[in-house]
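Researcher: We're teaching a course module on how sequence relates to structure. For the next exercise, students receive a sequence and then see the predicted structure as tokens, so they can try to spot secondary structure elements on their own. Here is the exercise chain.
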Amino acid sequence: MSHVVNADAERTVVVVEDDPNIADLVDLYLRQAGFRVLQAATGARGLELIALHRPVLVVLDVGLPDVDGFEVCRQIRAGGSTAALPVLFLTARDGEIDRVLGLELGADDYVTKPFSPRELVARVKAILRRGSNGAASDLPGGIAATVLDLGDAITIDLARREVRGAAGVVALATKEFDLLAHFARHQGIVLSRQQLIDAVWGADWYGDDRTVDVHVRQLRKKLGDDLPLATVWGVGYRLG
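Model: And here is the predicted structure for the students to work with:
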């Protein structure tokens, strides 16, 4: 069941979880944190709720009775209006292959069961906080840059959170966009994985720095040769 304590649609979180005990536990803690929560026990119902209510984030199990959570994430990322929707996997599948696959599909975080509900809420807040802080870039003189150009082929609109390549708009996941924007603000500078983690994922990130490599691989896949992003072996990455 769903519990609604806040009519503010901008704070809606969809929880896609077929175990009612886990779903209710996540629901309870998110509501206590001020979110409006909608539950779905299947992937199909989750996608329906996402389309109808435009949530700020999705908490997604992998083992669902109809389609698995990976396929749900693929469909979220494929949709024009949902491509940038933050997704947090909450699953019992704790293997490295599953974790890497989830991140490659564009997940913003990957939490394994058993889990701390308080930590889960902290991660949800961290994802949303990082997303809201990525809307503009401050330049010297107090000028706010809202559009950044990467050569002749790629344009980043920070206000719209939109990336355009040679073939048009490129759908990026939340962290992919934030990472690309950070690279764009520091063109020509070699950035270590830890510097990127601190800037994009924040000090409250619980994972390891391999997530940077996964997201870089996705950026290269989506933007192709137009993205002048070089690997500096033993150090990190440099754009431009």
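Model: If you want an answer key for the exercise: DSSP finds eight helices and 14 strands in the chain. Residues 1-9, 133-145 have pLDDT under 50 and may be disordered.
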